[in-house]
Specification:
By secondary structure, this protein is mainly α. It is built from eleven helices and no strands.
Amino acid sequence: MGPQEMLDRADTDNKWMLTPMKNFKSPRLTARIWRTPLAIMATAVIYQYLLHGRNPCFALIGAAYGVGSQFEEGFHNGINRFIGTFIGGLLVIPFHRLYTEQPFGIPNWIWLVMGLCLVLWCSLALGADSAIQPGTVVYFVVMFTVGNNRVVQYTIARVIDTGAGVLISLIITMIFPTKYDKAKGLTFQTFWKETRYAFQLYLYNNRKSRQKEQENFGMSDIEDAGEKPIDPFQRREN
């Protein structure tokens, strides 16, 4: 007897209470619900009319990443997307050619994996652990959807577009700040100060994440050396 048949045979007037949907609650409608479409709309309008119909795809993705529940969250998500796009896009340029031409008789899948490993290594070397996922996404998108004669131009354009979309979202957040951002005094005058602080916090979170990963593998060099990541919260309070 299937679930639907059991529900049909149930001896109760209110069968709705027997379904999983009885516990469904609509999420609270926050400012993020309207701020994200606003950032998307602003980006689309800019690309349509000021940039004469330039492809807005990566800019719109960057704009969506750049909207958060507060400025810092939007900055962290946006910088992840931008750094990942930059690293993945930069490395896919040479490896796209190696993948398609297969020099020295080396199979293309070896070049594919070698490029991917470099994307991971560069992200870790720059302390941008959270940029690995968006970096690999861009790497594969360009590798398998762009022709040889467009790789360089396409990749450079998409890196710029991603940064533009993130910037537009952050500007929208400044124009319409959240309650948390208002309490911190986020304005155009404090934009660079808040950006520097958000970037410090971004690096701090990446170092903490890497430390936890090392501890999970029993090889926490940071802990053994007695070095602890500097907490930007403490720095701000001081």
